[in-house]
From TrEMBL:
SUPFAM superfamilies: NAD(P)-binding Rossmann-fold domains. The lineage of its organism: Bacteria, Pseudomonadati, Pseudomonadota, Gammaproteobacteria, Lysobacterales. InterPro entries: Epimerase_deHydtase (IPR001509), Lipid_A_modif_metabolic_enz (IPR050177), NAD(P)-bd_dom_sf (IPR036291). This is NAD-dependent epimerase/dehydratase family protein. Residues 3-179 form the NAD-dependent epimerase/dehydratase domain.
């Protein structure tokens, strides 16, 4: 029996395949794109292809998706086809095959407009109890796919866990203003305070989810580096983020000063991973404190897995922006 990994040519999919095989587990990679980690090349929109791929699968790690950077280059129907219909095909096949665990990789982008409070309000404390407010077709289709997972657990008793990952892409930021205002390393380090994770930690959570899914049944979990912030920091985070960071992580100032880096003036949301740590037994290692210690000692703060995978990109074309077009 094997673990079927969809999206095996992508950042997370490749990381999952690498890790599972290093652990001696049978893993089958599926993707629309051929790669050294893809065993089955085809589309999850093709139900017959999905049925064949599901044969012999004990568990499914469903990481294949159209992402936010595709919003400006793909039709809304493409998102519906891949993110909703493709997920439905996999769920149908998994339930019919008696799969023991279905783990769906979702995104904190599902929260959409709930992530940005109105001017003057405190930063948002984002837990799984916050209701998503779709901002674009990407978030809307990922939320719909999450609900399909819940439905298949309710109706077919298929153990399904939804993992809402925060940003982990190694590419430069998709916001031109952020790219102009901060070096890439500075920006990513800041994000480990409130909205970023290392791919190694995400892989660890997915592997734990396979084992915990049968006992849990259904659950949604935020995956992001553990924040040093507390709820009582939220108002000041919005008004004076550096003051809060000085209080919670005082050693950051010396390192940032030496590197000529800057902290964000304001932080508008904080992702909270407490439920994943409690219910999955997840212990993320790559947080802001780890980043600072690595910078202090001159080591690469990224996990070896992140370094090995490198940058993949999302589009085969070049754009006027230089990276990718992004629609809000």
């Amino acid at each position: 029996m094997s673990i079927l990994v969809t999206g095996s040519a992508g950042h997370l999919g490749e990381a999952l395949i690498r890790t599972l095989r290093a652990q001696g587990r049978a893993a089958v990679g599926l993707d629309l794109v051929a790669s050294p980690y893809t065993d089955l090349v085809g589309s999850i929109v093709d139900r017959a292809f999905v049925d064949r791929a599901m044969r012999g699968a004990r568990a499914v790690l469903h990481a294949a998706t159209l992402h936010k950077p595709h919003v400006a280059t793909h039709a809304r129907q493409d998102f519906v086809d891949t993110n909703i219909s493709g997920t439905l095909n996999l769920l149908e096949a998994a339930a019919a095959s008696g799969v023991e665990a279905f783990v769906f990789t979702s995104t904190t982008s599902t929260f959409g407009d709930a992530l940005v409070p109105p001017p003057g309000a405190p930063a948002a404390w984002i837990t799984e109890d916050v209701a998503p407010v779709a901002k674009n077709i990407y978030g809307a289709t990922k939320t719909a796919a999450e609900d399909l997972c819940r439905l298949f657990h309710r109706k077919q008793r298929l153990p399904c866990l939804v993992l809402r990952t925060s940003r982990f892409f190694p590419e430069p930021d998709d916001d031109p203003q952020r790219r102009e205002g901060y070096s890439d390393a500075n920006l990513k380090a800041n994000e480990f305070l409130y909205r970023r994770a290392d791919v190694q930690d995400l892989v660890d959570a997915h592997v734990l989810a396979i084992e915990r899914a049968p006992a849990i049944g259904f659950g949604r979990y935020i995956l992001s580096a553990t924040t040093p912030f507390l709820p009582e920091d939220l108002a000041e985070l919005r008004a004076d983020a550096p003051a809060v960071v000085r209080r919670r992580v005082p050693q950051y100032e010396e390192t940032y000063a030496r590197l000529g880096w800057r902290m964000h003036a304001s932080i508008d949301r904080v992702y909270v991973n407490a439920r994943a740590r409690e219910e999955l037994g997840w212990r993320p290692r790559y947080d802001f404190a780890h980043r600072l210690e690595s910078l202090r000692t001159g080591e690469d703060p990224r996990s070896p897995l992140t370094q090995s995978i490198g940058v993949k990109g999302y589009h085969g074309d070049a754009f006027a922006d230089g990276l990718y077009p992004v629609e809000g």
